[in-house]
Amino acid sequence: MQAKSDFIVFLSDASARLSQVGGKGASLARLVAAGLPVPPGFHITTAAYRRFVAEHGLQEQILAAVSAAAPDQPATLEEASSRIGKLFAQSAMPDDIAEAIRQAYAKLGEGDAPVAVRSSATAEDLPEMSFAGQQETYLNMRGEAMVLDAVKRCWASLWTARAIGYRARHNIAPQDVSLAVVVQVLVPADAAGILFTANPLTGARSQMMINAAWGLGEAIVGGHVTPDTVVVDKASGRIVERTISKKDVMTIRTLEGTRQELVPKNRRNKAVLNPAQAAELARIGVQIEELYDQPMDIEWALHDGRISILQARPITALPDPPLEWKSPYPKPLLARGSSIDLLPDAVSPLFATLGVPIATKVYLKMYAEVMGLQGEDVPIFEVINGYIFLCFIKRSKFWKYMLVHGSTAGKLYEYGKVLAEETHAKCHAVVTRWRQMDLASVKAPELLAGVRELFEVSADYLCVSICRPIPQSNFSELFFSLFYNALVKRKADPVAATFLLGLESLPLRAEKSLFDLAQWAAKRAQPELANYLQQTPAQAVWAALQADPVPASLSGEFAARFAAHLAEFGHLTYDLDFMNPVPAEQPVPMLDTLKVFLSGQGNNPYTRQGAQERARQQAEQAISQRIGSLRRKWFQKLLTSAQECASERENAIANIGLPYPQLRRLLRELGLRLAAGGAIAQPEDIYWLEAQEADVLAAALEVNEPLSCHAASVEARKASWKRARKAAPPTVLPENHLLAKMFSPKKPQINLLKGKGTSAGQVTAPACVLRGPDDFGQMHPGDVLVAVATTPAWTPLFAMASAVVTDIGGPLSHSSILAREYGIPAVMATGVATRRIQNGQMLTVDGTTGTVTLA
Question: Would 290 be classed as within a structural domain?
Answer without folding.
Answer: yes
